[in-house]
Amino acid sequence: MRFIKLIIFLVVFQLNAQQGGMWIPSLLEGMNETEMRSLGSKLSASDIYDVNNSSLKDAIGHFNGGCTSEVISEKGLLLTNHHCGYSQIQSHSSLEKDYIKNGFWAKSFEEEIPNEGLFVEFIVRIEDVTEVMLKRVTDDMSPREKQSQIDKNRNAFEKTIEKEDWQGFKISPFYKGNQYFLFITERFEDIRLVGAPPVSIGKFGSDTDNWVWPRHTGDFSLFRIYADKNNRPAKYSEDNRPYTPKHYLPISLDGIEEGDFTMVFGFPGRTNEYLPAVAIEQITQKVNPLNITIREAALKVIDANMKEDDLVRIQYASKQARIANSWKKWIGENLGIEKSGAVTIKKDFEAEFLKALHNQGKTAEYGNILPQLENLYSEIEDINLKRNSFSQVFLVTNELMRMMVRLTQMEMASEKGETAFEKARDRTINQIRSIHKNYSVKVDKGVYKNVMPLFTDNIDASIYETTAFVDLERSLAVLNGEMREVVTKLNNDPAYIYAKPFVLDFYQNVDPEFKRLNTEINALQTQYMKALMEVMPNQRYFPDANRTLRVTYGKVNGYSPRDAVYYKPVTYLDGVIEKYVPGDYEFDVPEKLRQLYENKDYGDYADKNGKLPICFLGTNHTTGGNSGSPAIDAEGNLVGLNFDRVWEGTMSDIYYDPEICRNIMVDLRYVLFIIDKYAGADHLIKEMKLVHPKK
Ligand code: ARG
Ligand code: ASP
Questions:
Q1: Cβ distance 205 to 579 under 8 Å?
Q2: 47 pocket-lining for ligand 1 (C-beta < 6 Å)
Q3: 639 and 633 in contact (C-beta within 8 Å)?
Q4: Where in the chain is the domain with CATH 2.40.10?
Q5: Which candidate among 5, 285, 302, 331 keeps its CA 20 to 30 Å from the CA of 631?
Q6: What Å distances lie between residue 438 and 319, 442, 461, CA to CA?
Q7: Cα(600) to centroid(ligand 1), Å
Q8: Model confidence over 252-281: pLDDT tens digits?
């Protein structure tokens, strides 16, 4: 009997372990630790997170607030994705020094390039602060009263936080605001570019292969953290020196095989795993199609111009990638939601929830949450779509309109007086400068003609002939002078006259109404989360991603996307050569790499069958922000670099289906091979600690 129970227990654990989840590193003891061991991990919870001793978490840095990176040498060498360092690589590139096309390798510390504004943040410790944050917050309060009590608690608490002068902190809500955690942070601001492969390796396959398996991309780049003479965070200075980390990841030369344990440690951005079915329907049937259409209209123009003109190709490389990435993701998300039957599954789950409420006599307490959510989602739909189309057109795709949004905000600030105006003007000038750093009027006007009809019938492309803002010097001239004068000049500019009514409508009507309804929705989601955990306590609940440090784990595993089709979990250099299209902008392969392939000159980096692995798949539950996260083996060594998910599984942000959701990692052996054999940068390899855990 006991034996059978044990078997059942193990089976349930095995199945559950494949169900995803992104866990809080300081709370792994117990369920997660056991589950990880059942998958083959030899790590203890304190190997991963420890406050008093160095642990894996000390090697994991939040890269510029949007990606993840990890320290891989005692001299602060930092690994992240090529696409995470893309705007830095791009910003140092020109027609003469085309680092995008040719790659970049610093041969010494002196050649490493500083990056203004770039930062990397580490987590020193994590504390549960739910009690202080929710003090005197009661169920009978309105959402607004609750929020104001929480703000009060936060203000009082912030004054008492114990930390060193050079450290920062962050308090974030978890489980929809049912829990709060404090993060003590260390932010380094002198981060220099060390190396990047050419785009034909770092972004091999480009948009065609993005979000797709099988994949053959060497999506990595290298940076270095510099610190002051006390090894503490500091602004850029020539006197800074390479940072000595508390921990850095050893790299395994033995790699992975199907079935091996992996864990991904990083900063996932945002997921929404506890939405009601109505919300998923709204996203997939209304919001995604709208946003896909607008981005597609912009991409048509940008892509055509990039192919035609080398300067535009460099100028728009990073912008294009940003627009195309979510565009393609949303298409995959819609397909996955459909294929997995997520809406029906959620509806069944909701029925189960209602039944549990009934059985436990809690219908009076929680029974109106779902009906209320349904009403609110239908109420918010129109305004939600308006808000999305404004943001896709005015903030994401069209650059002249983005300038107009910033300028309108500046005029709004001027109504508050000189000081507010001056602050807003400085900010606006910076924003306009940064847009003009890489700006083509021809491209932007083309984008305008394509996207604006999707927002309004009022189209006037002639504003591009007459506005000052297509030119940086003329823009700055308008912004120069005292407040009244600037506002008058601004209101005579044709693009401003055209755009201002749309922008004002957005800020005065659309956005406030959206926020009002959204606050109500959020309050109900908080209650829904609480009710779920109370009445169905045996489900696995992990907190939605919120840009805080998380652990996710699983196994190296293939998948079956369609009937009779099975995708193996590892790709090889042979596949790069299979995809090779000479001269193609997505699938060209550098000659040197082809030669290394011909000669099978793989150094120490081939697998035991003599093949060079490129990418592999795992069942780790990841999302945007996990890019650049380390994939760590059973003993804490680096084996992979996370950078993407498979097409069929991009819906994992809303619904994680263990059958088809997989994350994609670059095999570290390919990274080392490129650094060593392709780039000849073996001085970097010498800094690292290479290990053979399987021997
Ligand atoms: N899809 C991946 C992520 O969401 C990788 C994007 C970079 N690659 C590219 N071809 N744009 O960010
Ligand atoms: N590519 C994503 C990133 O940049 C990761 C993902 O969405 O899977 O973070």
A1: yes
A2: no
A3: yes
A4: 550-691
A5: 331
A6: 9, 12, 21
A7: 29
A8: 999 999 999 999 999 999 999 999 999 999
